[in-house]
Amino acid sequence: MGGVMQKFLVASMFMWILPVAILYGFNNDLLPGSTTLSPHSLTLLSGFIAVVSVNVVIVFYICLALKEPTDKHKPDASFVAEAKDSVKKLISGVPSTDPALKKQE
Predict the structure, then answer these.
(1) Which of 4, 15, 28, 103 has a CA positioned 20 to 30 A from the CA of residue 49?
(2) Gap between the Cα atoms of 79 and 85, Å rounded
(3) Is residue 15 helix, strand or coil?
(4) Which long-range contacts (CB under 8 A, 24 or more apart) does 72-75 make?
(5) CB-based contact 27:46 (threshold 8 Å)
(6) How far apart are alpha carbons 67 and 62 in whole angstroms?
(7) What Cα–Cα distance (Å) separates residue 26 from each residue in 13, 29, 41, 84, 91?
(8) CA angle, residues 23, 25, 28, in degrees to nearest 5
(9) What is the pLDDT along the chain (105 residues), one digit of tens a residue?
(10) What values do phi and psi take at 10, rounded to 5?
């Protein structure tokens, strides 16, 4: 669980830091070639690159999640048993005794 949270926190930090750094770099003429652009073009280009950087971080995070081993995570046995019982009740047509479901009806 610790590795998952660490990856999530790192990805979240990059999703905040990269766009802000890109916008700061463009608006303060820290990136080469940004001084020759008009203010309108500068705003459009910096915003577009900032959005692309967030999407790159999201894709990187998804790739890390897909590479994680699936046999490492096991579901809770009591949760699985309750889920199977509820599915059986739905299929057989037996009315549920759950008070939350009765409130919805």
Answers:
(1) 4
(2) 10
(3) helix
(4) none
(5) yes
(6) 9
(7) 20, 5, 11, 55, 60
(8) 100
(9) 567 788 889 999 999 999 999 999 988 888 787 788 888 988 898 999 999 999 999 999 999 888 877 776 677 788 888 888 888 888 876 565 666 655 554
(10) -65, -45
